[in-house]
């Protein structure tokens, strides 16, 4: 199960699947991304009450499912429904929808899959691995996995070692060596270092970069963006997953994109760089088209891969080179 040999060009990582076309993290969205030629399929991982690994972007459920109506009395005091409070069978009974806004009145992306339409379920990591490995066999490809350990400190408080459960499951399916087609990603630097140094993980690890204002973890992202911080990341990780806004600014004179130098600094530490998120319906500031955006990031600042909701468009652009 060695690394995808198609990776001569930058990697196309399907962000929550082909989420520009189908509700995020559903198996249909993953199968579509596979068919569109993505190199890696992303999984965000949270734990259920019975310690099953669920593929879900948030630790709570109400933005992408009908949990509010199905289990009206199971919210916590903060008014949110947590996947951790439900068993797998309950989670499987929910209908999954295109991501809704906080008010639950419309989809976040108005031109995507219709609001509260369709028949989709939450899926487990096991289901997604078997789908991917099955298609790898029938397609003679080696599309990889790109799991994210979500909110590890919160999961520890809940009494579950999410990273250990993830590594155990990956190992059960044959993913354990550095050149296997897996990147494990996490925003929490302390946890990702623990994955390498205490849990002995040999897989490729990617340190995600947030802004400190996002409240993702207690990691100091302003520090990680410095030369000293990147040198620390390189002690335990193979790559960096920054937000696109951390890689460029806009020139005052004519508004064209200008590199912040972060990709070059990361490369100097031997880190591969996979920024998020490339969206055709929410372009980065200063870009006229999805194609312009992809080509600037690849040819001007030389990223090594990209997370996208539209894997078909990224594959098409990168095939033109
Ligand atoms: Ca993610």
Defining traits:
alpha/beta, six-stranded mixed β-sheet, TIM Barrel, globular, binds calcium ion, 321 residues, four-stranded parallel β-sheet
Number of domains: 1
Work out the strand percent: 5-15%
- Strand segment count: 12
The secondary-structure element order is EHEEHHEHEHHEHEHHEEEHEHEH
Secondary structure blueprint with pairings:
Elements: E1 11-14, H1 27-35, E2 40-47, E3 53-55, H2 67-70, H3 88-92, E4 123-124, H4 125-139, E5 144-149, H5 152-157, H6 162-172, E6 183-186, H7 189-197, E7 204-208, H8 221-224, H9 227-236, E8 239-241, E9 248-250, E10 257-259, H10 262-268, E11 272-273, H11 290-300, E12 305-308, H12 311-319
Parallel strand pairs: 1-2, 1-12, 2-5, 6-7, 7-8, 8-11
Antiparallel strand pairs: 2-3, 3-4, 9-10
Helix pairs in contact: 1-4, 11-12
The structure holds calcium ion (CA).
The site of calcium ion has 3 residues, from strand 2.
